[in-house]
Specification:
The chain is mainly alpha-helical. Helix content is about 55%, strand content about 5%. It folds into 2 domains: about 5-70, Arc Repressor Mutant, subunit A, CATH 1.10.10.10; about 90-135, no CATH class.
Amino acid sequence: MNKLLTPSEWEIMRVIWTLGEATANQIIHIMNNQKNWQPSTVKTLINRILKKGLLRTDGATRNRLYTPTVGEHETMTQTLRATIDDMCAMCIGHTLLDVLADMTLSQSDITKLQALLEQKMKNAPESIACNCLPENCEDCK
């Protein structure tokens, strides 16, 4: 999946992932309550997501049921990877530190992160080379 979602499309997908499947009316009702979005806005977003192939329908003409074709975790991981791939390789670690500092994580997640970092430390290079244009590269530290 390299069809990235816009922030508004994420909102729609989160509703569908949470419910497992949903009709347009269900999504419209939820988005109207949460974001005060109009039905036409929600329908436009659903159609965009359908065109990206991230939703499927049951084929009904009335009360059409929408089901995700991709998992939430998979989509989150691929979206984050695509974003990181566009960053300066030398700055990724610093950026992750900034983001993690502001996040609320469970103790279980922190334990898993610590274990992963300990494992990665065994083969980690001393530094990461910049992959930007050489004349514009600045240290991110």
